[in-house]
Amino acid sequence: MTIRVLPPEVSSQIAAGEVVERPASVVKELLENALDAGAKSVTVNIAAAGRTLIQVADDGAGIPADELTLAVERHATSKLVSAADLFRIATLGFRGEALAAIGSVSRLTITSRTTDSPAGARLRVEGGIIGRLEKIGAPVGTVVSVEELLYNVPARLKFLKQDMTERRAIDALLTRYALAYPQVRFKVSEGNTPSLQTSGDGDRRAILAALYGVDTARQMLDVVAEEDGFKLSGFISPTALTRSNRKDITFFVNGRWVQDTPLNAALLQAYHTLLMVGRYPLAALFLEVPPEEVDVNVHPAKAEVRFRNPDKAFSFVQRSARRALLAYAPVPQVAPQNLWGRSDDRPQTLDGKPQIDATWVLGHDADRERLPADDQSSMVNGQPSTIITQPSAFEKVPLLRLIGQIGATYLVAEGPDGLYLIDQHAAHERILFEQLMAQHEQKAIPSQALLTPAVVHLPPASAKLLEDQLPVLQHFGFHVEPFGQNSYQVRAMPTLFANSDPAAALRALVEDFEEDETPLQNELEAKIAGRVCKRLAVKAGQVLSPDEQRALLNDLETCASPRTCPHGRPTMIHLSVDTLERQFGRKGAR
Predict the structure, then answer these.
(1) CA Rg, the chain, in Å?
(2) pLDDT tens digits for 295-354?
(3) How far apart are CA 343 and CA 225, in angstroms?
(4) 451 in any annotated domain
(5) Which pairs count as long-range contacts for 69-72, CB under 8 Å and 24+ apart, including other chains?
(6) pLDDT (tens digit, 9 = 90+) per residue, 541-558?
(7) CA distances from 350 to 9, 279, 343, 408 (A)
(8) How many domains does the chain divide into?
(9) Residues 537 and 389 placed together within one structural domain of the fold
């Protein structure tokens, strides 16, 4: 096989593959160039999720006309002089290949003017071919327009995801940079529709309010720490404010957004024992370290960094976040629950020793992990004896006689073949799910108008997701209307959930589907119904009246699949009479 030198256009497209992964990659490179130029105002306009147009305009220093042609050449940069500079990088860009890579796979137009120039200059690059430089009137700063991205590499164009997914990636990027650079005015729009606008007054909490709503911004905890040249600032959420995924954890290192696994692990370690399994905090943290302490030249997209002393960075972030949590978060007050008619506040004791309320230790939430059945065993005469059985999910439940409630979480009932322990949250999930799916199959999910509509404020990416799926939500009985920029008003919800919090229900739906690449229309209706029911079912830790307990058991008995919740978790465990007799030594013991 003959070795040959690749043509320039081929090598340019190969290089572009490392820089231009998707439209969000182009936005990132152009935005970082604008910030490096000292911009105080950045305007981003998108069309067709960045496929047909990405335009980034700034009021930075601009590019001299005689250097504009050089700026679109590969490895041309003003930010590095020698190899030694790679180990003390203080700018966002440094490789000098972004504009060349973008220009090789799009139709790029760059217009720029410096403060000391009476006129600006314009240059076009089409598929890597540089056009003629033109003089033109222009304001101080730079405007870069990228049209028909990947038009000359259709094979790569096919790998882009749906417009909704690509828009969410762009919005997520820009909201993060808006938080990192509060002194810069950001204006983001798609066509004539603005999705993000900040004032540039330096108030990060105001930007948090614009992104997540005033209530969320008010709850966020300040983090400010400094130690041995390392500085950490930003916000983390209290333990009561969590998400079901890590997507709202943001780290910037020296002004650069990074996706660093050790830093994420350090933050989660700060919440150790404070959050339930499967729940994650919100965080926007900005770490500043001496440039020589971090290597940013380890990833093609500069999305990862490598610290000279990773243990120091990990422990600094972990201790700083933990200190903020302990300083702001209230200490939980443990009070015995009045389940057995106790009128005093004395702690329960056993053999003179105080006993900790197990429901408080585990947390009153239905999402916490439970031990699998295989791990729940006991010992009889020194031999392991499994005491819990889980019949088939489709096996009917026998008629049960209610005994009571334990720990405000489990119902105890007697059946003809032994004792049943029912998880009230999982059981209610199953009941609501089957009722909602029955209404769905009849194509008649009744709604109930709310006396006072609930207003929900969402981040731009989530708002776009919700807007695209309003018809689907309406089919399930939610009547939701736009109510200003990135805000929505819940005017009605399914009658089945009439007593639930409509804002919480809508937030939960959007949050659960943000990780999905497939739009809601293509999801199984059962998946949507299951997630709604999960959020709106009665929670663990909620005391039920005897009538409510009996109603729950009666409804569960009528379910088609009463043994599991819609997500496969068991609704009950069964202790047979035979098992009880063995445990008490009535069988096999002489």
Answers:
(1) 29
(2) 877 666 667 788 889 899 999 999 999 999 888 754 444 333 433 333 344 334 434 433
(3) 46
(4) yes
(5) 69/123, 69/130, 69/133, 71/99, 71/110, 72/99, 72/100, 72/103, 72/108, 72/110, 72/123, 72/125, 72/130
(6) 888 899 999 999 999 988
(7) 80, 34, 18, 20
(8) 3
(9) yes
Q: Specify the 3-state DSSP secondary structure of 144.
A: strand
Structure tokens at 551: 């109603």
581 to each of 296, 588, 589, how far by Cα in Å? 66, 9, 10
Looking at residue 134, its amino acid is E
Indicate if 152 and 239 belong to the same structural domain.
no
What are the angstrom distances between the C-alpha of 431 and each of 228, 323, 477, 494? Answer: 57, 43, 18, 15
Q: What is the pLDDT of residues 6-34, one digit of tens each?
A: 676 666 666 655 678 889 999 999 999 99
Residue 40 near residue 59, CB atoms below 8 Å: yes
Whether residue 329 contacts residue 239, with contact meaning beta carbons closer than 8 Å, is answered with: yes
- Identify whether residues 581 and 471 lie together within a single domain: yes
* β 249-253/283-288 pair status: parallel
CA angle 204, 206, 211 (to 5 degrees): 95
pTM above 0.85, yes or no: no
| Cα–Cα distance measured from residue 587 to residue 590, given in angstroms and rounded to the nearest whole number | 8
Domain containing residue 232: CATH number: 3.30.230.10
